[in-house]
Amino acid sequence: MSTPTNPEVKELNPVDFIQLQQYIEYCSLKVKDVLREFDADGDLAQHRHGECINEEGFRLFLKTYLEGEELPADLCQRLFRSFQNSESTQEQKNKEVFLKDVSCYFSLLEDGQPRDKLEFAFGLYDRDGNGVLDSSEVDRIIAQMMHAAEYLDWDVSELKPVLKDMMTAIDADSSGTVSLEEWVEGGMNNVPLLVLLGLKMTQKDGQHLWRMKRFNKRVNCNKCRSPLGLRKQGLCCTCCKYTVHGRCANRDPAPCTRTYVKSKKETGVAAHDWVSGNCDSKKCDRCQKKIKSFQGKHCVWCHTMRHDECAELEPTECTCGPLKDHILPPWAIYPVVKERPNNVKNGCSGSADDSELNITPDGQVLQIIPVPNTRPLLVFVNPKSGGKQGERVLHKFQYLLNPRQVYNLSNGGPGPGLSFFKDLQEYRILVCGGDGTVGWILDAIDKAKLVVRPPVAVLPLGTGNDLARCLRWGGGYDGEDLSRILKEIEGSSPVPMDRWSVQVITDENEEKGDPVPYEIINNYFSIGVDASIAHRFHTMREKHPQKFNSRMKNKLWYFEFATSETISASCKKLNESLTIECCGTPLDLSGVSLEGIAVLNIPSMHGGSNLWGETKKGDAKGLTSQEEPEVIIDPDILKVASQDLSDRRLEVVGLKGASEMGQIYTGLKSAERLAKTSQITIKTKKALPMQIDGEPWMQPPCTIHITHKNQACMLMAPQSKSSGFFNYK
C-alpha cells in the first residue's frame, strides 16, 4: 500500500539536492534498467497504473535505482511531491506521478553522452513510436530539464529563455510538432543545454570547454560585454577563462586558445595568446597603469595582463611566466602526417601500429618538439578521488597548463598521455589521486616500456595517502594554490622506490576466495587485525557508498570498525594460524601472541601510522643495501635498523591488537619488529583477511611469495622547515 504524502512536508531545498546527489553519484544502474522492472513482466509491474506510479512505486523506483539503498522517508516524500503538478488538488497529490517524468529527470542527471540523453528523453514521451512529439510533450521534457537544473544549483531564470529560444528555432515551420531529428539537432547546438546534460566533449582547438560557474565578484560577458551580475551564474571556459551569459554562448563567441600550431614551420615561435576582458582593477604589466573595464587582455600561457594598446608593443614573445618549466606550450606541438605502410600502399593487407603514434582524442596525430631548459609536466587526475576535489583540480590544471598535458583518468586511463610524451627525454609526471591511483600509473609506466622512466610526484586526493606522506607531499590536498605546488615540484629531488611482486597460491582442494586486488606491493601487505578492519570498511563502503564521501567521514567509520574489532578480537592467536620464512629462514612466533602481521615497504600505513617506529640517528647503522644481509632476525640488530624505501628490503612487524594500532597512530609506541628481509614466504592454515596497499579481501588457506620486482623513480618534495619526517601540510 502507498503511504499517504504528509501535507506538512515542505518543498525540496538545496540541502535535499546535495543529499540526493550523494546517492546518485554512486549509481551503477541506468534508468532504462529500472524501467524494465515496471514492464508487464517486471517485478514492479503491480505499482504501475497506466502511465503513473503511486508513492510506494516511486519509493521502489528509487530503491531499485540506488541498488537497495533507502532514501530517508521525508526526503522521498518531498521528491515525490516535486513531480506533481502545482495545480493538482490535495486529493490528486496523495496519489500518483507520471513514470515518464520521473525517468526523464533521473536520466538527465546520470552519466552519459548528451545525444543519448536527448534521444532517451524523446523516446520516453513518444509512446506510439512515430518519431514525432507535440509541443505539450516537448514542454514536459523542458520542465524536467528545468527541474534537473535546479537540482544542480543552476539559476533557472538564465536557462529558461535559452530553452525557449531553442524551441522557437526547432519548430521553425510552426507546425506544433517536433521530430526526433529536429529535437536532437536543436539540443546539440545549444551550449547551455549541453553543459546541463554533462557534455564530455573531446577538446578540439578553438572549442571552449564550458562549465557553469557562480561569480562572487563583478564579471563582464566577453560576448555582449554587459555584467553577469554579482553572485549570478554564467558559462566559463576551463581552459582560457572566456566568460559569457548562457544565452550568449549560442551566439558565436570568440574561439578558445590554440593548444598546438598548424605546421612544423610554426614551432618555436613563442607568441602570446590573448583573451580580452575581466582585467578590472589590475595593473598593466607593460605600462604599470590601472586597467579599466574592457580595455585589457590577459595571456593564457604567461598570465600577463596588458591594455589593448600595450598588447601590441614589445616584448611580443611569451615566456610562459613563472610556470615555464612545467608548461608544454602550443608552439612545441605540431601535427604530423600519418603515412600508410608500404604493404597497404601495394594493396596488401596490414595495419599501422597506432601505439607508435601520438594520437589525441580528437583524431589529430601530434608530435612534441622539446623546449630547451624545460621539463614539461604530464598530469594525470582521478576526478573521483577526494569527493569533488579531483574534478576541481582537473579544471585548475587545464587552465594553468596546456590542456593537452592534463589527462582525466576516467577517459581512457593513462595510456594516451604516456604515449604522447614517450619520446621526450626530460619530463615529469604528477599523479592527482590516492595511493591506488599512483599504483595504477606506476603499473602503466612498466607496461609502456618507456625509453626514459620519468620521475613521479603525487598530489594526495585519497583517504590514507601513505605514499604521499613518505614523499613529503602531505596527508591530503586541502585546496592550496596549485601554482605553489608546481613550484615545489621544481625543487623536488628524484628517489628510487622499491616495488614488490606478490604471488598468492590457494591450497589445493580449497574453494576459491575473493580475487587478489593487486600483483604488486608499493606500500604494504598485511594479514589479520588491520586487514579485518579494512575489509569491514570496504564491505560497508560498497553497500552504502554515499556514506563514505569525505576523508573525515572515512576516518570516523574506520575508527568505529576498529572499536568493534577490539571487542571481537576476530584474529586472536594469529601466530598459530600461519608460518613465515624470510629468505628460507623461519621466524619463531611461538613466544608472542599476535593478531596481525604487516610487511612494510614504506614508513607509513593507515594514514600516517609508522609501525616500524623511528630509529634514533645515533643508533642507526649506516649499512648500504649491498652491505646489509639478506635477512635480519636478531632483535638487537633490528632495534637499530632503520627503514628505507629504496634499500631492496621489507620490514616485517607483528600487531597485538586493534587497541595497539591506536597507540601506534598517536606515536605512543611501535609494532613489534620481527624481521628485515629481501624476500618472504607466508603459509596460512585457515581463511584470513588480507590487504595490499589498503585493498582488502578474504583469502582461504594459501602460500604467499613476495619478491623484489623493480624500482620506480619518485619525486621527494623539498624539506619543510617546520616538519619532521611526515609533512602533513
Automatic annotation (TrEMBL):
Transmembrane helix in keyword set: no
GO biological process: glycerolipid metabolic process; phospholipase C-activating G protein-coupled receptor signaling pathway
Organism of derivation: Oryzias melastigma (Marine medaka)
EC number of the protein: 2.7.1.107
Main localization, broad class: cytoplasm
Reactions the enzyme catalyzes: 1-hexadecanoyl-2-(9Z-octadecenoyl)-sn-glycerol + ATP = 1-hexadecanoyl-2-(9Z-octadecenoyl)-sn-glycero-3-phosphate + ADP + H(+); 1-O-hexadecyl-2-(9Z-octadecenoyl)-sn-glycerol + ATP = 1-O-hexadecyl-2-(9Z-octadecenoyl)-sn-glycero-3-phosphate + ADP + H(+); 2-(9Z-octadecenoyl)-glycerol + ATP = 2-(9Z-octadecenoyl)-sn-glycero-3-phosphate + ADP + H(+); 1-O-alkyl-2-acyl-sn-glycerol + ATP = 1-O-alkyl-2-acyl-sn-glycero-3-phosphate + ADP + H(+)
One cellular component term from this protein's GO annotations in UniProt: plasma membrane
Domain called EF-hand: residue spans: 113-148, 158-193
PROSITE patterns with a match to the protein in the record: DAGK (PS50146), EF_HAND_1 (PS00018), EF_HAND_2 (PS50222), ZF_DAG_PE_1 (PS00479), ZF_DAG_PE_2 (PS50081)
UniProt similarity note: Belongs to the eukaryotic diacylglycerol kinase family.
Function of the molecule: Diacylglycerol kinase that converts diacylglycerol/DAG into phosphatidic acid/phosphatidate/PA and regulates the respective levels of these two bioactive lipids. Thereby, acts as a central switch between the signaling pathways activated by these second messengers with different cellular targets and opposite effects in numerous biological processes. Also plays an important role in the biosynthesis of complex lipids. Can also phosphorylate 1-alkyl-2-acylglycerol in vitro as efficiently as diacylglycerol provided it contains an arachidonoyl group.
Protein name, entry field: Diacylglycerol kinase
Record-annotated DAGKc domain positions: 372-506
GO function terms (MF aspect): alkylglycerol kinase activity; ATP binding; ATP-dependent diacylglycerol kinase activity; calcium ion binding; zinc ion binding
Subcellular location: Cytoplasm, Cytosol
Domain Phorbol-ester/DAG-type, residue spans: 207-256, 271-318
Keyword terms of this UniProt record: Acetylation, ATP-binding, Calcium, Cytoplasm, Kinase, Lipid metabolism, Metal-binding, Nucleotide-binding, Repeat, Transferase, Zinc, Zinc-finger
Keyword Lyase (UniProt): no
Pathway: Lipid metabolism; glycerolipid metabolism; Glycerolipid metabolism
Domain of life: Eukaryota
Enzyme class per UniProt: transferase
The protein's assembly and partners: Monomer.
